[in-house]
Amino acid sequence: MKNFERPFPCTSMCSFIMDSVADGVFTIDLDWNITFLNRSAEIITGVSHGEAVGRKCWELFRTENCKDVCVLRSCIQEDRHIAHRIMSVHRPDGVTVQVSVSAAPLKDQDGRIIGGVETLRDLNGEGSVERIVGCTSSNDFCTTDPHLSELVRILPQIAGSDSTVLLLGESGTGKELFSRAIHRLSGRSSGPFVAVNCGALPEHLMESELFGYKAGAFTDARRDKPGRFQLADGGTLLLDEVGDLPYALQSKILRALQERVFEPLGGVESVPADVRVIAATNRDLARMVEEGTFRGDLYYRLNVVQLTLPPLRERSQDIPLLVEHALARRRLSLGKDIRGVTLEVMRILTRYGYPGNIRELENILEYACILCPGGLIQVDHLPRTLRPAIRPLSGDAPLTMDEVRYHAAVKAVKRNMGNRNAACRELGITKDTLRKILRMGQEDEK
Predict the structure, then answer these.
(1) Confidence at residue 304, expressed as pLDDT on a 0 to 100 scale
(2) DSSP state of 318
(3) Quick one: which of 170, 199, 197 has its CA closest to 356?
(4) Are 306 and 166 in contact (CB under 8 A)?
(5) Around Cβ 127, how many Cβ atoms within 10 Å?
(6) For position 3, what pLDDT does the model report?
(7) pLDDT at position 409
(8) In sequence order, which residues have a C-beta less than 8 Å from that of residue 59 and are 6 or more positions away?
(9) How many Å apart are CA 265 and CA 221, to the nearest integer?
(10) What is the pLDDT of residues 407-429, one digit of tens each?
(11) What is the DSSP string of 184-222?
(12) What is the enclosing helix (H) or strand (E) of 58?
């Protein structure tokens, strides 16, 4: 890393302030010459202020498809702001840095455009995460959440062992993504990855699905059929929604984990089970053990390594990154030139509670992409349940108590900059109550 030292103090208060900003910032004139580069931009790009000023921006930063998808060009030509575009900067030392880019036109005191300003947020630095599935690309799974980042940081060590892993988290938080990442980073990556949803299988079929059966075990069992344990031999088996396992079957799962053998239905000999098991659930297994609905010995056998994935509402800072990632996939599948979302849409998306987590965010964006003809996704392209209320609080028409509660909740959330926990404390209600009030108010707008 170069030592980018410049004379201190800076020549102007403006430069001093910009050098204190954590994000990289640079400006250009209308000839695409760099006119300013702050300290954070020097570190991110690997180019010093002295090397950069007076040179063309594309000569130094060498981002992917720079001339085709230049955000500064779009800002200057269309006089608009662009936020949260994910791009790669290729540094002179050969390192590629993933950055979140935002840009805006620069104007003089008369409102004439004289250049552009771009900010770069480093997504590869401390607190950010590379692609967890295979760890080959940062575009498929992005986060700056400290807790989730720490989980991904230790993922290679966890994958390197053969211990059972228990993934906890609400539905849609990415438990299957983590399980696939563990498999691909493990010594079993060349073997199969088999996932079974224990909550989706009928109870009377679950044993045969997991352990298979022998010919003649029951009516219509004309030939042997391997179960999921046998299909995952030499690889990884994901028991998704493991909290839905029938109590009577849990002892057989426990034996397969402890003895590494199982017996198919109708079989008389044990079959080896060379399988690494990952279990996932959105249920509280510890409470189920106390209630007697889940075996304690199986719970402690599964709970060797426990990873708890945070819900999306607790990592709202990741939403711009997840939005850009989801839109990049939609551009390819739909063939539409959808450049991003408006600032108002981003505000709505970052303040929503997401009971369905990342899966719900992706569904929202898929819906919006279907309605959006191209360009930026507007508020009207969002599902109606997400659109802000249009009925004013003031006026001659009387409001119901539900409407009064809804407007009070919306204003409290806005006053607290989208922090719903703070809004709940201000209103003296629980998070569940706040979520219910907002949902009911949005449904009334239909």
Answers:
(1) 94
(2) G
(3) 170
(4) yes
(5) 14
(6) 46
(7) 84
(8) none
(9) 10
(10) 788 888 877 777 888 888 878 78
(11) HHSTTTTS-EEEEETTTS-HHHHHHHHH-B-TTSSTT--
(12) helix 57-61
pTM for the predicted model, two decimal places: 0.59
- Decide: 412 and 427 in contact? Cβ < 8 Å: yes
Q: Provide DSSP, 351-380.
A: H---TTHHHHHHHHHHHHHHH--SEEEPGG
194 forms beta bridges with 237
Stretches where the chain sits below pLDDT 70 are 1-22, 62-69, 84, 86, 98, 123-142, 216-221, 331-335, 388-403, 440-446
Distance between CA atoms of residues 367 and 362, nearest Å: 9
Judged by DSSP in three states, 437 sits in: helix
Helix (H) or strand (E) holding 169: none
Q: Which residue has the tokens 């103090």?
A: 9
| Both tokens assigned to 139 | 């575009």
Counting beta carbons within 10 angstroms of the beta carbon of residue 3, is it exposed (0 to 12), middle (13 to 18) or buried (19 or more)?
exposed
SS3 label, residue 42: helix
Q: What is the β-pairing status of strands 305-308 and 338-341?
A: unpaired
Nearest to 440 by CA among 404, 394, 392: 404
The reported pLDDT for the residue numbered 335 is 67
- Identify the CA nearest to 282 among candidates 261, 309, 255, 257: 309
First to last CA, the chain: 56
Q: How many residues does the chain have?
A: 446
Tokens standing for 72? 């500064």
38: nearest Cα among 130, 118, 133: 118
What is the 3-state composition of the chain as percent helix, strand, coil, each rounded to the nearest 5? 40, 20, 40
- Residue 303 in tokens: 């709970």
